[in-house]
Amino acid sequence: MVEQPVATKIAFIGLGRMGLPMAVNLVSAGYQVTGYDRAKEACDAFAAKGGAAADSARAAASGADVVITMLPTSAIVASCLIGEENALADAAPGALVIDMSSSVPADTLKLAEELKARGLALVDAPVSGGVGKAIDGTLAIMVGGEAGDAARAEPVLKAMGDRIFLAGKLGAGHVIKVLNNYVSAAGALAAVEALIVGREFGLDEGVITDILNASTGRNNTTENKVKKFILSGAFNSGFDLALMSKDIGIAAGLAGDLGLDMKLLSRTSQEWNAATDELPAGADHTEIYRYVDGGSRLG
C-alpha cells in the first residue's frame, strides 16, 4: 500500500508515453500534481485524468515541494530546470528534485552541485518496466542519492513503482539504468540473430521462441517482445530505438571514463547506433530485428 502523501504539491515535467501514466498514478495516490509537457495534447490528456496542467515548466514547478523530470536526455533536464526554461526559479525552498529520466551520471552530479547552491536537493530515480508497468504503477525504480533525500523521495516513488531499490550514491540510479538497458539490448541482439539463423534453416520463429523460453536462452526479449511486437509485425512496444541506443552509449562512455575496455559493450553500442542511423526516425526498439535481418547476408 502507498503511504499517505507527505508533499502536498508535485510538479511533473515530461508527460510522454511513460511520464503521463506515472503522473496519473501520483494523482490517484492523493498528491496535488501539476504537469507540463511541450506537447499540448499531453497536457490535455493529463488534465482529463484529474491532474492540473501548466503552460510552462516554471509555472508547473512554482511552489512545488517535489519536482519530477521524465525527459529524453540529461541536457534537456538541465535546460529545463536551470537553463532556458528555469523551471526551479519559483520552486518551494528546499524542494526535492527527482530526475527519473535516463541521464548521463556525470551530468547528474553537475546538476546536483548547481541545485545545492540554490538550497535544493536531487535524487536520480530512473525506471524500468515499460509503458505497461508505468500504467499499473509497478515499475522498478533505481534510486541514487543521499539517504535522507532518498527517504524523502520514497513515498512519492511508491505511487509509481512496487520495487524501489536504493542503488547507492547520487548518480547510481542512472548508472544501473544504462547498465540494465545495455544487458537488455545485448540480449535483444542475440535473440533476433537466433531467430534469423533458425528461420533460414527452416525453423518456425514462434517455435524457436517457445523453446528458448523453456530453456536457458530465455531473456526479456524472448519472453516479452518477440511474439507480441516482432513476429506480429506490430513493432510498437513504446520505447524508441534511438533512446535505447542513447542509453547503451552512456554505458559505453562510462566504461571508457573508468578506464575499462568492454568489447561486447562497445560492439553492442556500435550496432544500435548503426540501427538508429539506418532505420526511420521514431523507430521502435523492437525494430532492431529489421536492422539485423536486413544486414545478415554474407557477401
UniProtKB/TrEMBL annotation:
Domain 3-hydroxyisobutyrate dehydrogenase-like NAD-binding: 171-291
Keyword Glycoprotein part of the UniProt annotation: no
Domain 6-phosphogluconate dehydrogenase NADP-binding positions: 9-168
PANTHER family (UniProt xref): 3-HYDROXYISOBUTYRATE DEHYDROGENASE, MITOCHONDRIAL, 3-HYDROXYISOBUTYRATE DEHYDROGENASE-RELATED
Name used for this protein in its record: NAD-binding protein
Pfam short name (any one): NAD_binding_2
GO molecular function: NAD binding; NADP binding; oxidoreductase activity, acting on the CH-OH group of donors, NAD or NADP as acceptor
Organism field: Stappia indica
Record keyword rRNA-binding present: no
Lineage: Bacteria, Pseudomonadati, Pseudomonadota, Alphaproteobacteria, Hyphomicrobiales
Single biological process term from Gene Ontology: organic acid catabolic process
Active site: 177
Entries under SUPFAM superfamilies matching the protein: 6-phosphogluconate dehydrogenase C-terminal domain-like, NAD(P)-binding Rossmann-fold domains
Keyword vocabulary terms for this entry: NAD, Oxidoreductase
